[in-house]
Amino acid sequence: xxxxxxxxxxxxxxxxxxxxxxxxxxxxxxxxxxxxxxxxxxxxxxxxxxxxxxxxxxxxxxxxxxxxxxxxxxxxxxxxxxxxxxxxxxxxxxxxxxxxxxxxxxxxxxxxxxxxxxxxxxxxxxxxxxxxxxxxxxxxxxxxxxxxxxxxxxxxxxxxxxxxxxxxxxxxxxxxxxxxxxxxxxxxxxxxxxxxxxxxxxxxxxxxxxxxxxxxxxxxxxxxxxxxxxxxxxxxxxxxxxxxxxxxxxxxxxxxxxx
Length: 259
Known about the structure:
The protein is mostly helical and 259 residues long. It has one domain: Orthogonal Bundle (MetI-like fold). It has helices spanning 8-16, 20-51, 56-71, 74-89, 107-133, 137-145, 150-180, 192-203, 206-235, 246-251; strands at residues 97-100, 103-106.
């Protein structure tokens, strides 16, 4: 039987004192996730609107987009957008460095954000559709009957109620986004997983390095889950009551019966 020898000093360092390059990688991971999720939500809403268009070419393009991005692996999409678009267009859509609002952004980061946003938009469109469809259609009819326009009724009546249904799966999608950023390591983005890869290439100690990076991913997703619980309570998104234990919300563990 093989005995695994763990370098506890290295593991401690990776968790409690990882160094400056690590913090830059962590900031990149969180930044990419936030920006990609934001654009994904916007794109999801636009996609939902397009799927309701009266013009069939718009609906056809929308359904083709959703089919392509829901039906293929995210890592394939990342590679295709970063490498494939340059080949198809005949010029470098994502060069080595791009200046965005005065900041130099690596082209791989921009390509990663585009890929993650497009992937997220395809899923968010369905989440938004389900949330809006869950609101009783009679409420729109009532709003129209008192003189509201369809746009005003959507903004003041339908969307606030739909948000209570959309928030829980949206929060879960952001957790997936945080973990999905790790795939950008394969196109050279210096984020958490890339930082771990490069350290492993130097010391050949995979157990300590990848336990360390797993700890940080777990910490990020747990912290976001706690924030999500508070957002849901503020919006009244959870119908299971304010006394629901955190273990049930985060881990799916039922509280012990007190009968």
